[in-house]
Each structure stands twice: as C-alpha cells, then as structure tokens.
Design a protein that fits this description.
This protein is mainly α and 652 residues long. Among the domains are: 220 residues, no CATH class; 150 residues, no CATH class. It has 29 helices and two strands. Strands 1-2 form a two-stranded parallel sheet. One of its GO terms (cellular component) is Golgi apparatus. Keywords: Lipoprotein, Membrane, Myristate, Transmembrane, Transmembrane helix. This is Dymeclin.
Length: 652
C-alpha cells in the first residue's frame, strides 16, 4: 500500500490522495547507506520532476504540509505524537525531494515544481488555494514559523531539526555551483516577505544554540541518521531489494545537535551578502541585539527596528565552552566585530581564560602540525582574527597579562605553564606561528595578523618569562639572517639579470620587502614594550643584552635606524651598570643586577613613537570566504549527506 501511494505521487496521475503520504513509514537508513539510497530513488525523483509540472502533486503535498504546520503548536500542547509523526514524514519527503531539486535544477525549474496546476483537489487539506507565486515562499514561512513557535521538548525536537535541515537543503543549490550564488530561497529570506521574520528567527536560532547545544534527536531502533525523521515506505522496499548491510558504519557521521544545526543555519544566512545600499535583515538583527540581563535603563536604539534582547551570560558561556569549534568561533567573530554591546560584555568578563584558552589551543595546534586542508587554514585565520579584534582593547591586553594560563597544561606540553599568563602564552604561540610561517606557509596575510596582535599587546607586556623573551629575540635573529640571504640573492639576481627569470626576481623582491616589514614591526614591538613597561620585563632586557650584537647590525640599515635608537639606549645603560657592579656570569645574578639597575633607569632620553594599535578591517567580499567555509563545516558535521562528486563550491 505504501509503495502504491509513492508510485502515484511521482506519476502523471492527477487525482492522488496525498494525505495518505504522511502515514507511510519505513525503517530509517544508516548514514553509510545514504548514498545508495539517493541513487536508488534518483529515477523516481526524475519522474516526479517531469510529471509534477502537470499534476501539481508536489506543490499539493506542500499545501498539505502548510496546513499541518499551522496546527503543530496546538498539537504540541496536546502531546499529539501521531500528528507530529505524520508531519515529520511529510517534511522528510519534501526535504528529500528538495535536495534532488537543488542538486539538479535551476532556480526557475525549482520554482516551477512548487506551482499547483490543479485549482481544486479533493485531497488538499485547505479550502483556500495557495497561489503559484507564493507556494515556495509560504512553505519557507511555515518552516520559519515552526522554529519560532514550537517549544523544545521530546515531541517537538524532530520537527525542529527537520525544519532546520529543510532550510539548509533549500539553500544548498550553491553547493553544486563553482561559486557563491544568490538562490531563490536566499533572496526570499533576505529580500522577500520572509525577511520580516529575520529578528525573531535570529533570536530563536541564538536561543537554540545557547540553550540546546547538547540536545539531539533521540534515536529509535534503527534511527541512525542525523535528522531522525521518518520516510516513506519506498525506502524500505528499495533498500530491502538492494539488500544493504545495516551493520556497515564506515561512512557514518556524528549526529548533530539541535543547537549546532541552528547555528549553521544562522551563520549561512548572515554570511550571504546583499547588494550595496540594501539592509541585510539577519546581519542587522545579529549585530544589534542587547543584553536582557542589563539592569540599567537601556533603551532600544531608535534607528534599529530589529533589535531584541537575549541573555548574554547564557550565550557567552555557551560560546566559551565551544570557542575552539569552527561554527562557534565564526559566531564569536561576527559578534565581536559588529555587535558593540556583546563585545563590551565579553571584554568586561573576569573569566576571559574560558574564552581565550580554546582559541589559543587552535593556534597552538596549527603551529605544531601542518595545516593541509583549506578548512583547517580558514579555522586558523579565524582564530587569529578573533585575537586581533580582542587585542584592540587596552583593558583586554592588560588583563590577559595578569591572568594565569590555568588549564593550558592539558594541551600545552612543551613547558610548564605555571609561570605563564594568558598574555605570555599568546605571545609564545604567535611567535611560533610566525616562525613556522617563515619557513613553511609563507603566507603574508598570516604574518601580518600575527604581528598586528603582538603589536597591539606590546605596550602591556608584563613579566614575560625568559623562554618567551628568548623566542621573541630568536625570531628576530632568524628574520635578520633570512633577510641577509635574500638580499644577497637579490644582488646576484640584478647582477646576472640575463640568466634569471623575471617571475623569480619579482618573487624575490616581494620576499625581501615582506621580511623588512616584519623586522621593522618586531623592532616597533620591542620599542613599545621597553617604553611602556621596561621595569616589568627583566627577562626581555636580559634577552636583548644577550643578543646585543644582533641589534648592532640594525644600526647600519637606513630602514631601521630610527627604531634602533631606543634599544641601543637600553643596551648601553644596562651594559654600563653591569660592568660597574662587576657582575658574575650566572643568569640569576645578572637578573638581580638588572632588577637593581632598573631603579636608576630614566626613560626621558627615549624617542617617542605613536602607540602601536592595529584595527582589523573586514574585506568587502567576505561572502566568498565565509559561505564555502560554512558549507564545508555542514558537509563534514552537519548531519546531511552531499555527494562529493557533485560538490563544486569547496573541496570536500
């Protein structure tokens, strides 16, 4: 009977009793079988596409769903499990069809399958027909209404998860394109009638993330696939005919939680661009909400029509627990960069280590291993940019250099962290990344942002341990030696220009320029640290004295002469003091003598330089970076199957 209704649904028969489709069921397939399942129904879905333009069967099923979706809230209050079971079936059928449409059809063709050609159908549970132009838009609105209206409990969680998955599938056509595109559904949500729901939907998705990040659909017997929905009997028949082994779990992917999937949807909507001069409803909502726990009389900005309130503490705690994860880190980036209220809240926290340590772990891991995937390098960039944005704040830079790096010993095994502050650990890790970039990545963007973060923190360097200071000076030494080799190669290249390729010459000039910029920046960082906090950096003074010949070489280079003056003054002052006391050669004694000499240090003779402050500026077309990045995350951990052969937006 189940198979009979499916055959009618995809056929050219017009008078199909679509209501019965919501009753058919099957044993849910394993994730490892999903690829085979899609192949097995491929011909059936082709028939549906061909016939539904004339029969309107698919659009009529959409109307059945829309009618049922409007009754879900009342059904949840009555604990009507059967009604939810039927609605979940309908959603899963629709999602499976839409996934095929997104993969194989153009926008125009997708819109056509949502058109009802038959004006009156005995089986449609609605007295009013949905117009052909609004069928898709009303369907999307119904999904949004489910997310906004339904509470989260054991009876609603599958419907909520299925709604989120439906939105992702409807937006997924760009996954099969070679570049980011604005699909029909994306346009509806950003510019159409659905855009009016942006504030409430944004709030709902944030609440799902902050309150239900650990809630997943309960598994039922063979329910192994992330969405947890119930599909049609056709699957049973086809899978049994194919005799697939349900014990094969090789291709299974970890199930995704409700909160994680909600965050994926939100990030995807926020990451798409809108034409210049137009309001992006989801960005406006995400960037303007304020703290519901704020006790002061805060009034909503008159210019922000979409501002809402949310509990910052719950959101912050959830981000802290997951700040090393790719989606949560991207959310943190958006909020720190654009939501002033939330950024101020974060910077006022006394438990910043809970937020910073997971991010530093991401950076440390990248410095220890090769980042051989695009997704991994983007994660590294994002973690680094977050540190740069935070380091723009002086109070943050001050606090992290006074906060012990407790908890880092779990993943930072190179040395004891007992004498390390969060700031010291950040400096050490950033130096290691620059060092690795120098010889492995050779990524100028990475180098620039690492140096920017160090520069922003430099005036607040405080009690840096000897190991960190030595790493700083050693890196400057490596940069200097590498620069000398490249300059020599450049001179030889210019001398024997006939035998040198032009492209190699250009690359060599670029390398020399990048090294000189890095060396100058390092000297500026040392200048800033010595000018603002010399008396709190005994080990840094010792490291400079220990490598004083390195700085003598800089005096002869016109690009560095202005910056080397202050460092030379420090070297001369402390060298003279150490000679006067006739210090012993032990490190401990030298450090004590440096500490004593600091009481006589007078910074008046130093040259004044502007404070080092770099501000992160987002590129204009971030869509090309973020959208493929998010889809890559969804592909790997989103609980949805995508055939990697057909994926073109990113490298699976």
């Amino acid at each position: 009977l189940e198979f009979f209704f499916i055959i009618q649904f995809i056929s050219s028969i017009v008078k199909v009793c679509l209501v019965w489709l919501v009753y058919v069921a099957y044993k849910l397939i394993f994730r490892s079988e999903w690829e085979m399942f899609e192949k097995s129904i491929d011909d059936s879905l082709k028939s549906l596409v061909h016939n539904t333009v004339n029969t309107g069967n698919f659009a009529s099923l959409i109307q059945v769903f829309i009618r049922r979706a409007s009754e879900l809230r009342e059904s949840s209050q009555c604990n009507d499990k059967l009604f939810f079971w039927q609605t979940n079936n309908a959603m899963f059928i629709i999602r499976t069809c839409c996934k095929f449409f997104s993969k194989n059809l153009t926008d125009e063709a997708v819109l056509r399958v949502f058109v009802t050609k038959v004006k009156e159908r005995e089986d449609v549970e609605s007295s009013a027909d949905v117009s052909s132009e609004n069928c898709l838009e009303e369907f999307v609105s119904s999904i949004i209404a489910i997310l906004i209206d339904l509470p989260v409990n054991w009876i609603t969680i599958k419907a909520l998860m299925e709604s989120l998955s439906c939105l992702l599938v409807l937006l997924s056509r760009e996954v099969y394109e070679g570049n980011v595109i604005s699909t029909a559904v994306a346009k509806m949500m950003l510019f159409g009638k659905c855009a009016i729901h942006a504030p409430l939907l944004t709030k709902t998705l944030l609440l799902l993330y902050s309150k239900h990040a650990e809630d997943a659909c309960p598994l039922e017997k063979t329910d192994q696939f992330g969405g947890g929905s119930i599909f049609v009997g056709l699957a049973n028949s086809l899978m049994e005919l194919l005799q697939i082994d349900n014990n094969d779990k090789e291709k299974q992917v970890k199930s995704i939680t409700l909160g994680d999937q909600a965050l994926n949807v939100l990030l995807l909507l926020v990451s798409h661009n809108t034409p210049e001069g137009t309001i992006h409803p989801f960005r406006q909502a995400l960037f303007s909400f304020i703290n519901s726990q704020e006790q002061s009389m805060v009034t909503l900005p008159t210019t922000s029509v979409v501002c809402f309130k949310i509990n910052f503490t719950e959101l912050y705690d959830q981000i802290c627990s997951r700040s090393g994860d790719k989606p949560s880190l991207l959310l943190l980036y958006f909020l720190l960069y654009k939501n002033v209220e939330f950024r101020n809240y974060v910077l006022s926290r006394v438990n910043l280590q809970n937020l910073i340590l997971p991010i530093l772990k991401v950076l440390h891991t990248s410095s220890q291993t090769d980042v051989d995937s695009n997704l991994g390098s983007q994660h590294l960039y994002l973690a680094l940019i977050v540190i740069v944005i935070l380091s723009e704040d002086d109070f943050f830079c001050k606090i992290i250099h006074e906060t012990p790096a407790k908890g880092a010993e779990e993943w930072f095994a190179e040395r004891s962290v007992r004498d390390l502050t969060l700031g010291g650990l950040a400096v050490l890790i950033l130096v290691k990344i620059i060092q690795k970039n120098l010889f492995v990545y050779r990524d100028r963007y990475l180098q620039t942002n690492c140096l920017a973060a160090l520069a922003n923190m430099s005036s607040n360097f405080k009690e840096l341990p000897s190991s960190v200071c030595q790493k700083l000076i050693d890196l400057l030494d490596r940069l200097s030696k590498r620069h000398a080799r490249f300059v020599k190669r450049k001179e030889l290249s210019m001398k024997y220009i006939v035998t040198e390729e032009v492209n190699n010459q250009i690359e060599l000039f670029q390398d020399v320029t990048a090294l000189e910029e890095a060396m100058r920046m390092f000297l500026e960082i040392l200048n800033s640290a010595l000018m603002h906090n010399l008396t709190h950096n005994i080990h840094l003074v010792y490291a400079i004295l220990h490598q004083k010949d390195l700085f003598r070489d800089f005096e002869q280079h016109p690009m560095f002469q202005d910056l080397i003056w202050n460092i030379t003054c420090v070297i001369n002052f402390f060298s003279t003091r150490l000679r006067e006391v006739g210090t012993e050669t032990s490190v401990e004694t030298i450090l004590e003598d440096i500490k004593t000499a600091m009481f006589h240090w007078n910074p008046e003779g130093l040259k004044k330089f502007p404070d080092l402050k770099f501000k992160y500026v987002e590129d204009q077309n971030t869509e090309e970076f973020f959208v493929p990045y998010i889809w890559n995350i969804i592909y790997n951990k989103g609980g949805l199957y995508f055939d990697e052969v057909n994926v073109k937006l990113f490298e699976p």
